[in-house]
Amino acid sequence: MAHAEYRFSVGPWNLGRGADPFGPPVRPAVPFADVLRTAVDLGFHAIQFHDDDAVPDLETMTPAQITKAAESMRKMLADMGLVAEFVAARLWEHPHGVDGGYTSNDPAARKWAIDRSKRAVDVAMALGTELMVMWPAREGTGVRESKDPVEASRQLIAAIDAMLSASPKVRIAIEPKPNEPVDTAFLPTIGHALALGTRCADPARVGVLIESAHAILAGLDPSDEMGFALAAGKLWGVHLNDQNGLKYDQDKVFGAANLRGAFDQVRVLERAGYASTGYVGFDVKAQRTQPAEKAAAHLATSKAVFLKLVEKVRTFPESVAAQCIAARDYEALERLVLEHLLG
Ligand code: 3MF
Ligand code: MG
Description:
By secondary structure, this protein is an alpha/beta fold. 43% of the residues lie in helices and 12% in strands. The protein is globular and about 60 Å long.
């Protein structure tokens, strides 16, 4: 049987400058044209955007100006054989978003967040993608009593509904994360995101993007989170990476901490035919220790690991596994998986 080819995507923030909470950037900023060149050189097909990656001054521009700027970005992509995968409104860096956007206790900040998100929808449409990603970064609390969680759910639904009404085509993929930068986030898991989606104005246009590390931070198995979303036809994007236990968000190379967990993620995607429905994105970070000229290696490695694991999945002795399962000999199944991965 012929296999669908996987298509890969990356965001400009994945070619970062090595800053962390304890130290400033250690590498020069990568000009946007170089991000695109690196993506092409590494065999990626699509670019993921924050709204202001595509249109830097969108808050001071008219809708016509936003559309014009995004269309010229679309042309720049097309000239290099690339397309936009999605746009996400970057609310979390703006002074108005300091206590979250949609769930801020300040009504002026909530209004700003919705206005900014609608502008981001305009950016997406002009870039030629219908997909918006919503990572609710600061939609949560550091002090639990500071926000009302019942009200917060309503506010999140209102925000999604506002985005849905900005275009009849737009689809929204919620990217849940349980913590960081907040202590406790209102949409920590895929279950929360999918449940919220059913309460929006047009549930058919609300789905999810799953990041491996975010699931691990919630104490969940990323492949099961993916399976749950796939079963509902709602897995509209993935951010594959890795995470070594419960600590700060590490955005490690895919498979770097748990190769078997990475195999399980590729297997669930492969068995569901994800290659023909969505991009494989890597939300990975270059280590601070990398010099500028070697600061894309994490992307190359993640993609190489993914493709090797696709081969591992395709060569996995499924009929032997089925015999182990039929005999309920899960120790034999365990050994089969480990020998296959080691082999
Ligand atoms: C944070 C993330 C984000 C989102 C991105 C797209 C900066 O942990 O994963 O990366 O993926 O904003 O919405
Ligand atoms: Mg991500």
